[in-house]
Amino acid sequence: MKTETYHHQFETPSIIGTILRKLHIDIPLFIGLSLAASLSFIILYSAGSQDIGLLTRQGARIGLAFAFMTVLAHIDPAQFKRYSALLFGIGIVLLAAVLVMGQTALGAQRWLNLGFFRFQPSEMIKITTPMMIAWYLSEHPLPPRPKHLLIASILILVPTLLIAKQPDLGTAILVASSGAGVLFFAGLSWWYIIGILTSLTALTPILWHFMHDYQRARVLTFLNPEADPLGRGYHIIQSKIAIGSGGLYGKGWLGSTQSELDFLPESSTDFIFAVFAEEFGLFGCSGLLALYLLIITRCLYIASQARDTYCRLLAGSLAFTFFVYVFVNIGMVIGVLPVVGVPLPLISYGGTSIVTLLSGFGILMSIHTHKKFLHR
Amino acid sequence: MSSFHSIKDTQLENHFFVNRIIAAFVAIVLLTTGLIVRLIHLQVAGHEHYATLAKDNSIKIYPIVPTRGMIYDRHGNILAENTQSYSLEIIPEKSKDLDDTLLRLQKLLNISDEKIDLFQKQRKRQKRFASTPLLLSMSDDEIATFAVNRPFFPGVDIRQRLVRHYPYGELAAHVVGYVGRINEAEIKTLSSAEYQGSTHVGKLGIESAYETELHGKTGYAEIETNVQARPLNTLNETDAIQGVNLYLTLDMDLQKTAYDSLAPFNGAVVAIEVKTGGVLAFASRPSFDPNPFVAGIANDAYQALQSSEAQPLFNRALRGLYPPGSTLKPFVALAGLEHNAVTASQRFLCPGYYQLPNVNHKYRCWKKTGHDWVNVNKAITESCDVYFYRLASALGIDDMHDFLQKFGFGEKTGIDLVGEKSGLLPSREWKFEQKKQSWYPGETLITGIGQGSNQVTPLQLARATATLANRGNVVTPFLVDKIVTSTDTHAGPETHNEIIALKKSNVEAIVSAMVDVVHSERGTAHDLKKDFNYLMAGKTGTAQVLGIKQNAKYDENAIEFKYRDHALFIAFAPADDPKIAVAVIAENGGHGGSVAAPIAAKIIKQYLKDTQ
């Protein structure tokens, strides 16, 4: 009885709050994610031409994703740490398996057919890569020594290259940045960071050599979309028209003409932000960005409060990767980055990516809600 | 591990980490601000510009369809051209109720369901404002009927379009091919940007093999329109690059002679310019008129072509597989001489049959009474089977296979057409792979006279003949002589120039035997009217359609026509300085000498007269 009163005095008195707490759910994060998910339904209804079936399927996915999140939030971070290397290893094996015998969808090998369902190992590796790097670096003194940096870099490069070979440039970028995020939070020297950024720029011509034709075409299109307005440039031109015509206040919900008249391709998946911008204008966009920023800030706060090095690095990297998600998608839709297949997190239709995404948040919640049993 | 860290380390780490969190936060806020600045740029500064663009139908990008290139023969005769025709077209966006419009049009003009279907498929891959043809090549009646009712069909109009036309019709259908409406499978493979606005694609022959070049490159115009979608002005225009014109090596006079003189038989004739490999005649009989395919052939007409027993759609010259019969003998004889299995003067006795040691089976000569003593010249001139049984037996299948392969038997010739067959040159490996059986000595004998598993295409046979005429310089046949663009002219496909090392005396022995086939009293083609003043080298051949049992007699008159032997003839001339090589296959023609040889002689005579 005494403990009960204690709870009532110092913690959220509502029943929902108590339940969420018991479930190891972080309330601010939960509210932010729920808001984003609700926005997803609103904008999908418009972008998907009022297709209820589309909403139902998205609802099922989001429900599953939230369930995943809850389950993961329940697990003690020590467990994640213990299985980091194993999970990472499994992920790499599966990625290699995809390259050898994966199914081709849209010209890229991404799926592994397990008989009863199709599985995309590149999704799993998005989470296991930062776990692996965080585990590896937390086992050694920080900031990392050159030797550890080298090994960590190789550990990041292996899954990145395997995914880039599928080819899935978008996911490869996300995996690389999740690993890079860990290095950054581990205290990688600024000189290294500047050096890496400079050499990446210098390596661009070599990278160009290894790119697929369609990837090169995308980069060229990005540099000059008007060069091929009927083909590849069409996307960007129409997307810019949609966003620009939205103006300050937007055309209102269901008011998007660009997607309604089929000018804008992929309007409910990768290019959904263009529809959002057309209907809700600059104010709406700023609001959405603010919501993302709030979610990211909360994640960074969780990272700063984390109980040990592993948790900090992992939490920091997950927050950072989420931002890369947002930035790469919006950047490509508004024409400041080349088109790579990255969906707008929490909003875009479909993909197993939403499950992975919320799994990441599940881990963050686990880190935040399992602090009482400090090992240190 | 962390328990080993000192307190100081942990504090240092903490310090670092908090710093990094702050740095990350600042970077994220800055980058987000960057996104917002860009959004302001688009949505506030650029708003007016983009709003105009987005306003209903304000700017449209219209494809400018390139004109398909023409196809000519070597003398500039037109094989494929574009003619003006009127088509009924619909702009889906402007039509209020498309389904209803289609239904009423179908009733008014009696349009088949297939055409409606085709229209729907094409409409779906185009922009809503693009004009899509429903009927091509409208008749005057149809134009008049629609013109009267036009006000009831908003969005439907008659437009002029260029339609492909093949003046020579069936004569060159198997070479030139045809274009047809783009079908569903092709939509998936063709570039949607390149084929915006294109309705047709090459389906067969040169039209298909040179599709990219003939099609050209689609241009586009950005056109500003008002709310009624009326064009106001053109903002930006990139011209289309017209398709290239192709000049073929084909000689249509020769082609006509080849096609006509094959009648009444089905079959194929291929004539090759020996020095270059350019194909002069490429006839497959019967043929079909490609023109109905352009507008979309009616289903029953197509079914009739498909199910016809004579198979007019089948390209015999390129894909027909025939046993070469005795036309293979000069090559086998050359193999024997080159591998020293026999010498030119060596003689064998032909008693009318040959038996392998310890085997009962009698391998018969076509001449029951035998040829007496036979050397290589007599063996070719009189086509003695027994000589070749002995030669093949001495040579062995491995050497025979490897030598014949050099002349292109069993391999694609690499001609610039799609769908060529590679034929079959039997070997030990082939048999083991296909039948999991070892090679029997008897098969070597049968292979040596061009029967058994041997299969050649008429094109292969002509190519091998040209290579022999060329004294071992391998000839690669090709059809496109010149590719002419608006700015330059370049040659057709590259041909490789391999040389088969041959002893001169051996080749001349074979060539002189082939001359004797035509010019000697004993030759199997000596009945040929020799109204020419050069030496022609040739070889007759008869390919069995029906296996004849041991001791049974082949009686031409008693056998149903379709089981009669195929008549073959290969030839080149002039024998000492060959200009043209020909292969003729007349299906169920019976005798190579009496049926196929005159056709080859006629073509050679005409060609040599023309070039002199």
Total number of helices of chain A: 15
Unreliable spans of chain A: 1-10
- Count up the helices of chain B: 22
Q: Give the class of chain A from helix and strand content and strand pairing.
A: mainly alpha
Strand element count of chain A: 3
Query: Domains counted in the coordinates of chain B: how many?
Result: 3
Helix content of chain B: 25-40%
Largest sheet of chain B: 7 strands, mixed
Strand order of the largest sheet of chain A: 1-2-3
Biggest β-sheet of chain A: count, sense, barrel? 3 strands, antiparallel
- Give helix and strand order of chain A, one letter per element, not per position: HHHHHEEEHHHHHHHHHH
CATH superfamily assignment of the largest domain in chain B? Answer: DD-peptidase/beta-lactamase superfamily
Over the alpha carbons, how many angstroms does the gyration radius of chain A reach? 21 Å
Q: Based on the structure, what is the oligomeric state of the protein chains?
A: heterodimer
Strand content of chain B: 15-25%
Q: Uncertain regions of chain B: pLDDT < 50 for 5+ in a row?
A: 1-7
Q: What is the CATH level 1 assignment of the largest domain in chain B?
A: Alpha Beta
Task: Describe the structure concisely.
Chain A is mostly helical and 376 residues long.
3D structure, described in words:
The complex is a heterodimer of chains A (376) and B (612). The two termini of chain A are 31 Å apart. The N terminus of chain A is likely disordered. Chain A has one domain. In chain A, helix 3 runs antiparallel to helix 13. Chain A is an all-alpha fold and 376 residues long. Chain B folds into three domains: 53 residues; 185 residues, Penicillin-binding protein 2a (Domain 2) (Alpha-Beta Complex); 210 residues, Beta-lactamase, CATH 3.40.710.10. Chain B has 22 helices and 21 strands. The radius of gyration of chain B is 34 Å and the shape is elongated. Chain B starts with 6 loop residues before the first helix and ends with a helix. In chain B, 44% of the residues are buried. Classes of the chains: A mainly alpha (376), B alpha+beta (612). At the A-B interface, helix 11, helix 13 and helix 14 of A face helix 1 and helix 2 of B.
